[in-house]
Amino acid sequence: MIESVLREERIFYPNPEITAKSNIKSMEEYEKLVAWAEKDFEGFWDYFAKEKINWLKPYEKVLDDSEAPHYKWFINGKLNITEQCLDRHLEKRGEKTAILFEGEPGDIRKITYKELYGEVNRVANLLKHKFGIKKGDRIVIYMPMIPEAAIAMLACARIGAIHSVVFGGFSAEALKDRIEDAGAKMVITADGGYRRGKPYMLKPLVDKALANGCKTIESVLVVKRNNESINMAKGRDYFYHELVPNMPDICEAEIMDSEDIAFILYTSGSTGKPKGVQHAIGGFILWAQMTMEWVFDINEEDIYWCTADIGWITGHTYIVYGPLACGATTVMYEGVPTYPDAGRWWQMAEKHRVTKFYTAPTAIRILKKLAPDEPKKYDLSSFEILGTVGEPINPDAWIWYYETVGGGRCSIVDTWWQTETGGHMISPLPGATPMKPGSATKPLPGIFAEVFLEDGTKAKVNEGGFLCITKPWPSMIRNIWRDPERYKKTYFSFKDNIYLTGDDARIDEDGYIWIMGRADDVINVSGHRLGTMEIESAIAKYEKIAEVAVVGKPDEIKGEAIFAFIVPKEKITDPEKFKKETQEVVTKEIGPIAKPDYIVITEGLPKTRSGKIMRRILKAIAAGKEITQDISTLENPEIVKKLQSSKPI
Ligand code: WTA
Predict the structure, then answer these.
(1) Which percentage of the chain shows pLDDT scores above 90?
(2) Which of 524, 528, 558 gets mutated to test ligand 1 (max ligand atoms within 8 A of its CB)?
(3) Distance between CA 440 and CA 434 in Å, rounded?
(4) Ligand 1 center to residue 167 CA distance, Å?
(5) Which atom of ligand 1 is nearest to the CA of 515?
(6) Kind of pairing, strands 329-333 and 97-102?
(7) pTM assigned to the model
């Protein structure tokens, strides 16, 4: 198993002022909740599901595991997620800002709960009556980070349509694959948005995707954001601003079953094409709300800001559904953290008096590197809780976040979770858990995590192994869209219907969990999951290439960088040009996030006699590490030395 080299000894205790405002105030309280869930698992969830959710019709049973691993939660309970996020707040906080939007150019919009409710209802009516969208239909959302993205998601949920948000950084090809896999009827998009001080375009990419397939798409709704010129196909494409204002202000919420699909979100796995992770309504919204309350201690006065993109699960759970279910003010920012300079986020935090802030280690590392003292120029005294997600945070970045950004007052919540888990799984509680930099600490109450060795036995203290979740939980993945076999095989075939996360981890002597990275062939680039297979198939489309293998190389900023070993068909005379062309192919197939940073051109790849590429060897070579593995069994052991001495372009 993996050797763990990281040993961090420091411990930081929560500030008593943070504890005073917290929902869970001590480790004793935490342990009590854990013990309750252990002793009376269903009773525990029953209590919270009843307390937190406005059920239109109560459920009859908490958990049905008769078809495990297809677990079902809150059987026959009826609800609508938008009633949980909007309707129930109207009386108490109708005039409160729900979404506080800032565009990259600096334009600000504050949308109250009442206004958001009205707009969601109008869009819902439009989808239903103009475009004939029905319960269960799929709608792909391909948008910049503007309020209409959240509105589109909620409008789908209002009428029981299933949204599949595709990250705006994905290419036309990637968009097309996802539209086709989901069998979507409609795309909601925008002309484009602003990034790095310039307009960028989305609608032309939609046009391109639809020109090459996507036969199920009947209509495209387009929000005007950057006012750049675009083509509109007659009878297919419609402008949002021309239609939405004329729609009725009220659209009755569709009565949904707790187990109906809330949404599909595509994510990368180690094999094959991206998988459509399916979430269910009741369990998802319950855990989204509960984790907002436990991990962010969200309260009425908070200005809460999660910097993720709504194209990822973090944006779904912690920009849209979780905060709105809690009646919070959620900040949405359109652009990059470095425009016009590396102080943008701190300047925004000061201006809006942000209290809870949630971002990714890669962003923390970039801002620390570019402008380590920049946070000191702003009044960041409103910060109380600072979160991270997406990859392990290295202690250096943690300490900077804690001291320079948080002024040593704030709790850092290093939240471990996945697209498949729907919400936080392992995280400190800001008022209770002593923090160890680099550890996501302990499972939240109700969540049971263990580390197992390859043979299925439990790992010893500090021994690295597979991180598993041993009991089901309400916001867990329900299925992979149209591929139940892959669902079972990927997540539940390791051991007794328990959930295999795909991460390696160890648990220390205090029960703290340390994530060591992915156990499978998934590369985590700046907190974004990319399958090696996906990148390899994209690169292989380039006609000059005979064979390719891709691995992750540790990177100071991105966490992992993409390293490609390429066997060309013919001799490459201009390596720089070759690299550029390879990157262009990947950008076209997937998007710029998947571009290889390093390329080694080689005459062969290390293979076993049965023809399997030895990725572990390539990983070691990319990292510049010694190779400890026995290479004598390789078909072509001599290639290893050659690869070790070649310089990447
Ligand atoms: C990694 C993002 C260490 C992990 C919510 C996981 C983390 C994958 C952490 C899921 C963390 C996420 N510490 N690693 N706090 N959070 N990861 O599906 O490898 O985009 O399996 O979901 O990110 O990525 P995904």
Answers:
(1) 91
(2) 524
(3) 11
(4) 17
(5) 3
(6) parallel
(7) 0.94
| Ligand 1 touching residue 222 (CB < 6 A) | no
Query: Which amino acid, 477?
Result: I
Domain ranges of the chain: 113-254, 521-645
CA of 419 to the centre of ligand 1 (A): 8
CB atoms within 10 A of CB 21: 16
Bridge partner list, 411: 385
Count CB-CB contacts under 10 A for residue 400.
18
User: Ligand 1 mean position to 466 CA, how many Å?
Assistant: 14
Output the CA 517–ligand 1 centroid distance in Å: 9
Q: Evaluate: CB of 313 within 6 angstroms of ligand 1.
A: yes
Pocket test for ligand 1, best of 389, 420, 475 (most atoms within 8 A of CB): 389
Cα–Cα distance list, 220 to 125, 157, 200, 401, 649 (Å): 16, 18, 19, 42, 42
Shortest-distance Cα residue to atom 14 of ligand 1: 391
Phi-psi region of 307 (alpha: psi -120 to 50; beta: other; left: phi over 0): alpha
Note the pLDDT tens digit of each residue in 271-329: 778 999 999 999 999 999 999 999 999 999 999 999 999 999 999 999 999 999 999 99
The helix/strand/coil state of 240 is helix
Distance CA 301, CA 594 (A): 40
Instruction: Give the Cα separation of 33 and 494 in Å (integer).
Output: 28
440 lines ligand 1 (CB under 6 A): yes
Amino acid present at 3: E
Nearest CA to ligand 1 atom 7: 391
Report CA(576)–ligand 1 centroid distance (Å): 33
DSSP 443-492: BPTT--EEEE-TTSPBPPTT--EEEEE-S--TTS--EETT-HHHHHHHHH
Sequence-distant (6+) residues with CB within 8 A of 484 are 70
What letter would DSSP give residue 635?
S
Residue 1 has a pLDDT of 42
Cα→Cα distances 313→195, 250, 528, 583, Å: 21, 28, 11, 26
Rounded CA gap, 564 and 550, in Å?
Answer: 4
Which tokens is 205 given?
């990419």
What pLDDT score was predicted for residue 273?
84
The closest residue, in CA terms, to atom 2 on ligand 1 is 418
Domain 521-645 has CATH 3.30.300.30: yes
pLDDT band at 4 (very low <50, low <70, confident <90, very high): low
- 450-459 contact pairs (CB < 8 A, 24+): 450/507, 451/505, 451/506, 451/507, 451/513, 452/494, 452/495, 453/1, 454/1, 456/494, 456/495, 459/1, 459/506, 459/507
Only one residue has tokens 């209509």, namely 219
Higher pLDDT, 5 or 98: 98
The pLDDT assigned to 7 comes to 64
Residue 547 Rama label (left phi>0; alpha psi -120 to 50; beta): beta
Q: Are strands 237-239 and 499-507 parallel, antiparallel or unpaired?
A: unpaired
Question: Which residues lie below 8 Å from residue 514, measured CB to CB, with a gap of 6+?
Answer: 4, 6, 392, 438, 439, 440, 505, 506, 507, 508
- For the record, the structure tokens of 44 come out as 């525990």
Are 8 and 436 in contact by the 8 Å Cβ rule? The answer is yes
The domain made up of 113-254 has a fold known as Rossmann fold (3.40.50)
Ligand 1: which of 275, 317, 441, 529 to mutate, judged by most atoms within 8 Å of the beta carbon?
529
Q: How far apart are CA 566 and CA 125, in angstroms?
A: 52
